[in-house]
Design a protein that fits this description.
alpha/beta, Rossmann fold, seven-stranded parallel beta sheet, two-stranded parallel ribbon, 9 helices, 11 strands, binds NADP nicotinamide-adenine-dinucleotide phosphate
């Protein structure tokens, strides 16, 4: 059982949504949390909360699409806070579209934030963790990593990549003292990218609270769990695992199931509700992308 108290945790996507809940849960465990996100306001809001809950906090405003500058970010963090014990790759974005309507830059953005930034941060932090023979990488994937869904294919690909990279890395690092866990939440209500859309989840899909994800992260660290599905409750989670196993053998049964419970229709609705939004790309050129309203 790993004790989290006094450990230094680098948490991406810490400014809001699930990341804020993870930061609070880590604070209760008396960790030092280094939160990374673009919103200074979101990071500042968490600062007081984390400290009131018993944790230490350092917020760093940073856009993770700037992959080439990540070594500088890591240097800066290590100079201020020393070595990182736990890395939680939580930052994520999604863009709902028919596949042929994505621009190359939109595809790059989703893959960069959801997959490449976590890989690169891990690559930069791993040598120190290996020297110290201890560390933990936590990747926040999704149930979309286990079964794809229509009109959100890039997000699903990024999360499947995160899941399989975690699976490989866990085996590669076995016996080194550095652990790897991947968390796969289903629909999350109350806060986060899905709740923000205001569209209800399909009744039969199950929903969880952001606190459930935060609890799962804490347990995964303490018990060194390999892969954790978070979907409503234990019964729904176990039922989901059985369905996922069946869909390995009969993938089209899974497709029909998603159509039947309304996942496909929901995604169609979200793809139709995309609002154009201007965002910066990894090359720092401004382009018009899209975001669910
Ligand atoms: N909500 C769900 O239903 C659900 C389900 C399964 C998995 N997940 C996963 O859980 C994780 C957290 O999602 P969430 O629901 O909390 O989403 P969210 O509310 O949209 O928060 C996303 C976080 O990522 C940060 N972020 C996005 N782009 C960034 C960038 N370029 N640079 C730095 N930070 C960036 C955001 O901060 P700034 O905007 O301030 O930069 C924010 O803190 C994601 O990986 C998501 O895929 C969510």
């Amino acid at each position: 059982m790993t004790n989290i108290a006094g450990q230094t945790v680098l948490l991406t996507g810490a400014s809001r949504g699930i990341g804020a809940f993870i930061a609070r849960a880590l604070a209760k465990e008396k960790a030092t949390v280094i939160g990374v996100a673009r919103s200074q306001q979101g990071l500042d809001q968490l600062s007081a909360e984390v400290q009131a809950l018993g944790g230490c906090w350092l917020g760093i405003k940073y856009d993770l699409s700037h992959i080439k500058d990540l070594p500088n970010l890591v240097d800066q963090i290590e100079q201020i806070a020393g070595h990182i014990d736990i890395l939680i790759n939580n930052a994520g974005i999604e863009i709902y579209k028919n596949f042929q309507d994505y621009s190359t830059l939109e595809i790059q953005s989703v893959l960069t934030i959801n997959l490449l930034s976590g890989m690169e941060l891990t690559r930069l932090l791993l040598p120190t963790m290996l020297r110290q023979k201890r560390g933990h990488i936590i990747n926040i994937a999704s149930l979309s990593a286990k079964k794809g869904n229509a009109h959100n294919s890039i997000y699903c690909a990024s999360k499947a990549g995160l899941l399989m990279w975690s699976d490989s890395l866990r085996q590669e690092l076995a016996g080194t003292g550095v652990n790897v866990s991947v968390i796969c939440p289903g629909y999350i209500c109350e806060s986060g990218m899905f709740a923000d859309t205001g569209i209800p989840a399909p009744t039969l899909a199950g929903t969880s609270k952001p606190t459930d994800v935060a609890i799962a992260v804490i347990q995964a660290i303490k018990q060194n769990q390999a892969e954790v599905i978070v979907n409503q409750d234990l019964i729904t989670t176990n039922f989901t695992k059985i369905l996922l196993a069946i869909w390995q053998i009969f993938p089209r049964f899974g497709d029909k199931f998603y159509q039947w419970i309304g996942v496909t229709k929901l995604n169609q609705k979200r793809a139709a509700n995309q609002m154009p939004v201007v965002f910066k790309t990894i090359e720092n050129r401004t382009i018009v992308g899209s975001k669910s309203d």
